[in-house]
Amino acid sequence: MVILLSWQALSQGCVQDIDECAAKMHYCHANTVCVNLPGLYRCDCVPGYIRVDDFSCTEHDECGSGQHNCDENAICTNTVQGHSCTCKPGYVGNGTICRELLDDLTINHKHKDKIDVNVDDKNPF
Ligand SMILES: [Ca+2]
């Protein structure tokens, strides 16, 4: 956390906080938000960014850091303020959960067979 004391001396020994953010008296770099605090300020990372140092943040590569929710059979693509998951070829799903396309077809085929059986069960003739 950045701690830079900055008080403006007033008369009779009183001091007043200086808003370094509004006064552009801060050293927060890109991808940060300056937050004024009494007597100091800090540089918060904008959402989706991670801290580099007290004054800087960088985009978080969830794919590179392994902090993603993609299925093991999905391709993780880093994006600004997030990431996306796409099932690999041969797999279907939303990227968070991917199934083999062959399994999906087999399940549908079995389900279709089950429906056919039910239809036959309802017809006694
Ligand atoms: Ca990202």
- Report how far the terminal alpha carbons are from each other: 80 Å
Spatial strand order of the main sheet: 1-2
Uncertain runs = 115-125
Q: Indicate the CATH architecture of the largest domain.
A: Ribbon
Helix coverage percent: 10-25%
Give a concise summary:
With about 120 residues, the protein is of the alpha+beta class.
Q: What does the model show?
A:
The protein is 21% helix and 36% strand. It is an alpha+beta fold and 125 residues long. The chain has 2 domains: 1-59, Laminin (Ribbon); 65-125, Laminin. The strands form 5 sheets. A two-stranded antiparallel sheet has the order 1-2. Strands 3-4 form a two-stranded antiparallel ribbon. A two-stranded antiparallel ribbon has the order 5-6. The chain is rod-shaped, with a radius of gyration of 28 Å. The relative contact order is 0.10. It binds calcium ion (CA).
Features:
single chain; 125 residues; alpha+beta; Laminin; two-stranded antiparallel sheet; rod-shaped
Per-chain topology:
Blueprint: E1 7-9, E2 15-17, E3 32-37, E4 40-45, E5 49-53, E6 56-59, H1 62-65, E7 74-79, E8 82-87, E9 91-93, E10 98-100, H2 101-122
Antiparallel strand pairs: 1-2, 3-4, 5-6, 7-8, 9-10
The protein binds calcium ion (CA).
Residues 48, 59-62, 78-79, 82-83 line the site of calcium ion.
